[in-house]
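User: Hi! I have a protein structure encoded as tokens and I'd like to know what sequence might fold into it. I'm fairly new to this, so please keep things simple.
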């Protein structure tokens, strides 16, 4: 299958099996230009929701989820595959990234845009990339990466480079196609087949640790990061916070209940300072 045939096959979002999609992507991306960037010393936030006001005692409980609990395809994971999902932070007070993390992590928020009422508890971990990782940037939307110079430069450089390629039109069509899949607001598990196959083609077969892509929940103004399990030694938890999160109609109420006093450098224990409830 050539690139033009691939673009035509997948532009209508066909419902195909994971193995077929994976093999098609693998065969087409070999030698195809991609936006790849090394990231280091960048903060990430990751959130875990719960129906109960329980404090997690260990970092491992809020890091990569146990594979046996993962029963469905996600944006980048297959069934029984643990992927670290988080949002890149421009600063310690990056509200847009926090909204993105909350919206992407909670199924009620992810699948609904109208008024709703519910109460959840959530634990937010703040992590740092302390050893360099290599990520694919997709899609390369300027607004999503303008606060991250390394990502913005890589995306712009890529755009300039492919203009000189003999297959420029087909390559651009491919990247626009993948961008549409990543921007699509999935409603059912099958909607994730293409993107989870794309993620695994690169992390399984190339020197790639993950993918950076804009949040579809807040109009691309924050950048999500998905990391393969092999990247786990490259990230480190710095601090943890625990919140009560409520929605009443379109009103949102957030109360911080606890924060970590210490997170052991070489261990897995979280010591909590209680702030409320």
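Assistant: Happy to help. Inverse folding works backwards from shape to sequence: for each of the 277 positions I chose a residue that suits the local structure. Here it is:
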């Amino acid at each position: 299958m050539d690139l033009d045939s691939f673009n035509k096959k997948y532009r209508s979002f066909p419902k195909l099996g994971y193995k077929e999609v994976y093999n098609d992507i693998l065969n087409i991306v070999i030698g195809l230009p991609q936006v790849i960037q090394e990231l280091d010393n960048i903060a990430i936030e990751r959130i875990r929701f719960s129906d109960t006001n329980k404090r997690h005692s260990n970092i491992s409980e809020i890091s990569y989820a146990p594979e046996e609990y993962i029963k469905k395809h996600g944006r980048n994971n297959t069934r029984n595959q643990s992927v670290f999902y988080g949002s890149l932070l421009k600063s310690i007070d990056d509200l847009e990234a926090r909204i993105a993390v909350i919206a992407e992590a909670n199924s009620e928020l992810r699948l609904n845009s109208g008024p709703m009422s519910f109460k959840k508890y959530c634990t937010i971990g703040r992590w740092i990339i302390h050893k360099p990782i290599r990520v694919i940037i997709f899609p390369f939307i300027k607004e999503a990466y303008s606060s991250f110079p390394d990502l913005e430069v890589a995306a712009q450089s890529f755009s300039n480079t492919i203009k000189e390629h003999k297959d420029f039109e087909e390559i651009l069509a491919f990247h626009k196609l993948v961008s549409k899949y990543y921007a699509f607001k999935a409603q059912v598990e099958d909607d994730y087949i293409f993107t989870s196959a794309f993620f695994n083609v690169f992390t399984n077969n190339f020197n790639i640790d993950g993918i950076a892509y804009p949040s579809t929940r807040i109009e691309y103004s924050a950048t999500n990061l998905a990391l393969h399990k092999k990247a786990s030694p490259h990230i480190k938890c710095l601090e943890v916070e625990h919140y009560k999160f409520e929605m009443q109609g379109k009103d949102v109420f957030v109360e911080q209940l606890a924060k970590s006093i210490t997170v052991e450098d070489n261990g897995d224990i979280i010591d909590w300072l209680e702030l409320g409830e």
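A useful reference point when you look it over: DSSP finds eight helices and ten strands in the chain. Feel free to ask if any position seems puzzling.
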